[in-house]
Amino acid sequence: MWNKLYNAAVKVQNDRRISPFIEAGGVAAAILTKKGNIYVGVCIDTASTLGMCAERNAIANMITNGESQIEKVVAVMPDGRVGSPCGACREYMMQLDPHSGEIEILLDLETKKTVKLKELIPDWWGYARFEE
User: Fold this and answer.
1) CATH number (domain holding residue 76)
2) pLDDT range class, residue 18, cuts 50, 70, 90
3) E strand or H helix at 24, and its extent?
4) β-pairing verdict for 22-33 and 70-76
5) For residue range 102-131, what is the model confidence (pLDDT) as tens digits?
6) pLDDT beyond 90 at 22
7) 39 is in which domain, residue-wise?
8) Residues 6+ apart with CB under 8 A from 66
9) Beta pairing class for 104-108 and 70-76
């Protein structure tokens, strides 16, 4: 599955200039949902910092299609290696679902090394709000 997700991300990764203010596609991401669907997204970088990361773009695609639970995440960097989501993306994913800490993130394609989101955000502040 990791190779399938990686390939889905690479397929949409296409570093390009949209305008003098916006570049997109340097980083791509693919997510696998609990329902078994794959959603992809690319980063959108803007001159005014109003862009979005590839992971959040893929999540927006997932939410647009009526889902909100993620199983696995792959982010592909411009050099083709996989990378860990930034802090904003980690927080965004944690807020989706009470079990988001179990999301598996690929850290190395060759060795298939992974980490769970809860390991990247220990002692997350928001668990109690899911209990309200």
Assistant:
1) 3.40.140.10
2) very high
3) strand 22-33
4) antiparallel
5) 999 999 999 999 999 999 999 999 999 998
6) yes
7) 2-130
8) none
9) parallel
Task: Name beta bridge partners: 96.
Answer: none
Give residue 117's identity as a one-letter amino acid code.
L
Measured CA to CA, the distance from residue 38 to residue 34 in angstroms comes to 10
Structure tokens at 95: 């807020």
User: 103, exposed or middle or buried, with CB in 10 Å at 0-12, 13-18, 19+?
Assistant: buried
pLDDT at 122: 93
Distance from C-alpha of 10 to C-alpha of 57, rounded to nearest angstrom: 15
DSSP H/E element including 118? helix 117-120
Residues 32-47: b if buried by 16+ CB within 10 A, e if exposed? bbeeeebbbbbbbbee
Ramachandran bin of 124, using left for φ above 0, alpha for ψ from -120 to 50, beta for the remaining angles: beta
Q: How many domains does the chain have?
A: 1
